[in-house]
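User: My instructor asked us to take a sequence, write out its structure as tokens, and then describe one feature of it. I'm not sure where to start. Here is the sequence I was given:
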Amino acid sequence: DRYPGFLRSIFQWRHLKMLKRAGRGHFVDGIACTHPGELSLPCPACPIPGKNLPDDWKQASPEIAFLYALFLAMDATFRLRNKVVSNNYRSPTLGDGLAYLVSSKPYKEHLTKHTSEDDMSSCSGFAALFLANLKNVKGLRVSGVGGVCCGRHRVWRGNGLGDLQKGERYCNMDFMFWSSIKGEDHLCIIVSYDISCQWSRNFWTRMDAIDPSLKIKYTERGIVFMIPKFHLRAHQPSCHIPFSFNFTPGCGQTHGEVVEEGWAQSNKAAAQTKEMGPGTRAMTLDDIFGFCNWRTIENLDKVLGKRLVNAVKEYDEQYEDFIKFDAGLEKALTRKVLNEWEQMVFDWEKDHSNPCPYEVSEEDDFFKRIQLKLAEEEHERLIRGEAAYSSIFFLLQCRRSLGLFITTNKGLTPTQQLELQKRRSSLLKRILHFRSLQVLLMPRLSDVLSPDDMNQLENPDHLHPEKIQLFLPSDCGTASARTRACVSGVPAAEACLREAEARDALNGVRDGLRARTATKRYKVRNVTGQVGSTRAGGVLRQIDIRIHSRKIRYRLARDCLLRLVGHGTWEEELRRLGMNPEDDDDYLEDEGVIARVQGESKRVLSWIWNGVTINKGEDAFRDAVRVEWCKSRARMLRWKEEVMLLTEELRRMQQYGHWKGKWWIARTVGMEGGHSPETVSLELREGLDAYAWQQMRFQEDFAVKIRERWEQLGEHARKVLDRIPNLSTIYLELEEETSVSAGRDAEQSM
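Assistant: Let's start with the prediction itself. The structure tokens for your sequence are:
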């Protein structure tokens, strides 16, 4: 044997330790009848029938059935390689298949049936990875390790790990998945795998070759295939919605990337295990993954508790955000339309062949329609300009428009210089006409202006009329100064016009953001080549200029309104246009929906969409609003599910501790399942009982610690869930109110 005697003793000691901690020394049949995977540490937060689930968990209502679903995450690492050194005779495996690695004999028998299979991914971004994993395998017995862990807690499953011989093939991963759930019973299994879009194809056909009873137990809807959130963007767009955790009911805020964290721990032993014999390597990996599980379980309640604190906060915020958005859309549309959108979501969740509510269909002539809309808006603006020529407040638009023209056109051509001069002359004429009206409307303006302001009023810069200050009532400073300078009613008239101007500018911002988002999305998916990209860039530049001008107009109008009327309820609808109330910097992302950039699950709608209006004929905008409403609803529901899942997981950990404590008591000498007093010596009996009582105390203390640490938080989470009603209840109340008001209106009309 190539290993010294003391190393063989270490491996034997490791194996005996695992058997002892699993309680095999307390069984009459000892090691011989140890079941596959029995030496692994199970996840106490995952659903385990008979150990941490209620007695009626199989009869759970559809609303809470997701609480008893099993989340699994699958992946492979190509760091844990192994060279062709030694053999099974010189380096045998002690306890083959009793812990984390699959049993080698049935595993090899399964692989021999699939030696000629060649798996390949047709999904963009992953075909190259499949080819790369097949390289540099010469001289290797094992090219990597595949594994299955629980998808929410990163605890490796018993019999959920196996060696890869030639890349990450389906036959390897199929057997590991089946081994990790063999003999268990669950309502539903949600599997996270970075190639689920490919692996799920013909999945049941491959499973029938391994275990035909699996399909009978779970049915085709009993196993749901997901793609981890970080990996999802590398897939084709057709995979983004159907395989997303964000839009699948019952997933909460599961991200599915926990298996990558597990590889980060085990890959540290890659250099050492690469040179080991097969048996030594297998026992070492079992020991490493067992230690990873133990360390994860020891701190798991703290991790879940911190997640629950954050989940309760996020759920409350997402709920308030959705209710505001929903109420605003109910005014713009009707509750019937929103119910139709909700039914569309239900239909798609039942069958993905139905129209997807989270996507907007795009047309080929998109850019032409956008350019036509911009041209029509420009035409309408010119018409309004001619009609409002005598309006003094139209001066503000003309002056800002001229300033924006100068800012966006640095190097002017002769034609642009001529246009600039004409616009300056036209603006100067309007200002001079306004001065004649200002004498009548603000006769005592000179009494409230400072010497510098009087100098600007008497000696304006006629060469640059866009810089001339108009000195409207809002520029007079205090309310007493406005009363003194203006004729009665002029400040109030400006306040009304400023409010209307702010609302009109805000609608313009919404229109521009919608157009910009749709244009960017179309450009990314459909435009290629320099000519098309240049044309699309020109359209985007026009849209950005319009958005910027409308933002400036809104902010100026709002500031003037604040000076005229002060703080009031109007600020609830016309807020400061910025990321934070203290920060007035522009922060309007695509569609203006992002308040902080932390991914889809924590995205919050901007307040500007609460008062959105939808006109007839705006089908594209209507679809975009439908998508955002559905996504906002999905975010709120996923956070609600996360609160419920975390609360249930903490409860399961506590119940599992009590069950495990009772299990150890049943292993004492004389109890059912343990040795009989006649078959063991007094010394051995004392040792067995002492160890069983010690382990029982550890488990009971673990359960008590969880209860004392998180009981109040769990009660708070349940109160939050009870305080916020279900959406179905809200919709029913709204429909009843609508029907009552409709009947009242009918009676009045009669």
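For the description part of your assignment, you could build on this observation: The beta strands are 70-77, 82-83, 140-142, 144-150, 156-164, 189-193, 223-226. Try explaining in your own words what that tells you about the chain.
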